[in-house]
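Because discrete structure vocabularies remain unfamiliar, we turn briefly to a single example record, giving the amino acid sequence and backbone structure tokens:
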Amino acid sequence: MNTRVIWRIVLDLLLVLAAIQGWWPAIIIVGLIGVWTCRYFVEFVGAAYMYDMLFNVFPAAPHWAYLATATAIVVFAVEIGLKKIVRD
């Protein structure tokens, strides 16, 4: 097995563990590492969506229900842009 595949599996397991436990800062940190080191690390957005579905319930303000997912998409897009600037 390739070391990149093993690295990606380890990051995925950490993301799922952090999402299930409700550790949003850990999701951000592992997601940033994953987006920087792996190509197309969209699991970060999936883990943020899982976190939203498990923990972000705002009956009075339903537009806040997807705050973690929106944050992850913005962080993902910014870091992809930074990667292109730095690596090219």
In short: Residues 3-87 form one domain. The chain has four helices and no strands. The mean pLDDT is 87.
